[in-house]
């Protein structure tokens, strides 16, 4: 995976905090202190479930793999709908594993594996359906990472298998632009139950290939003062861009649905839910190197 921090991961007040306290930890938003906050925000999310479940039920999979599964939210909903018999979640986040195992405690036929799906060692599992909830494709923030993701999906799927995931519709980057550089502060309870504020900021740069930086700061007044900075670094992909890439990796678009984001700054923004069928890989492979 390319370095998710990339160049200039921080902006505005978050950058100012780092300059003032150069030793302050800069963590992935998907791990450690930030997971306690995002868990409360992410677990109740369901806006993407109906479209993914409709697409998944068209292909009646036996084994379903969730790429970038986090706490296993999507697999949990598919299992409650009777979609699939075996379920595997893949994620790089350490906090995701603990949360996934908590969610599925006592259930059988569901497993978590730590895996960076852009790493060179290739698929470690086989599946009939690969799903990605939310707009997880945006976590793959370079053309090379998107190529690697699509290569991984092709490798993990059995012949005739399918991939179902969401991508923002083509006009949505314009909506991010209108959002500007938004900031707010939200109260939450940390892993020890203490009330805290998390400061959140978002910055979108169409001139830097749709670079989307989300910065966070949680202040601590104890021996961890001044606190921790958090980062999500994404690239806003659009339906046209993803569809232009998939053919070169051995996928055909076979069905399409719609899901509308219903929380956070992207509330009301539409995604296309794509169902891709794995075909033999074309001789050239990849769209870019
Ligand atoms: C936007 S979150 C979505 C979580 C989950 N799919 C959902 O819908 O609730 C993206 C997730 O993808 C994971 N992720 C990002 N890059 C990854 C990679 N290269 N390999 C595996 N997981 C990855 C992150 O750790 C994070 O949990």
From TrEMBL:
SUPFAM superfamilies: S-adenosyl-L-methionine-dependent methyltransferases. InterPro entries: Methyltransf_12, SAM-dependent_MTases_sf. Residues 65-162 form the Methyltransferase type domain. CDD domains: AdoMet_MTases. This is Methyltransferase type 12 domain-containing protein. It comes from Streptomyces thermolilacinus SPC6.
């Amino acid at each position: 995976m390319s370095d998710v921090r990339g160049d200039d991961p921080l902006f505005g007040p978050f950058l100012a905090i780092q300059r003032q306290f150069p030793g302050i930890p800069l963590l992935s938003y998907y791990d450690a202190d930030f997971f306690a906050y995002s868990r409360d925000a992410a677990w109740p999310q369901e806006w993407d479930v109906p479209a993914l479940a409709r697409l998944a039920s068209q292909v009646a999979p036996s084994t379903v793999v969730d790429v970038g599964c986090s706490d296993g939210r999507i697999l949990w909903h598919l299992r409650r709908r009777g979609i699939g018999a075996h379920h595997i979640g893949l994620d790089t986040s350490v906090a995701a594993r603990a949360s996934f195992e908590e969610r599925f405690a006592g259930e059988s036929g569901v497993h978590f594996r730590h895996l960076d799906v852009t790493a060179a060692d290739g698929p470690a599992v086989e599946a009939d359906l690969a799903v990605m909830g939310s707009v997880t494709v945006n976590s793959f923030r370079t053309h090379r990472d998107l190529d690697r993701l699509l290569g991984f999906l092709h490798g993990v799927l059995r012949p005739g298998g399918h991939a179902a995931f969401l991508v923002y519709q083509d006009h949505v980057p314009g909506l991010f632009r209108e959002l500007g550089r938004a900031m707010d502060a939200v109260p939450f309870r940390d892993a020890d139950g203490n009330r805290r504020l998390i400061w959140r900021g978002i910055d979108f740069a169409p001139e830097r290939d749709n670079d989307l930086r989300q910065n966070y700061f949680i202040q601590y007044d104890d021996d961890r003062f001044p606190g921790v900075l958090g980062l999500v670094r994404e690239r806003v992909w659009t339906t046209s861009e993803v569809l232009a890439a998939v053919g070169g990796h051995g996928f055909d678009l076979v069905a399409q649905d719609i899901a509308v984001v219903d929380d956070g700054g992207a509330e009301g923004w539409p995604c296309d839910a794509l169902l891709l069928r794995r075909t033999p890989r074309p001789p050239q492979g990849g769209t870019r190197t």
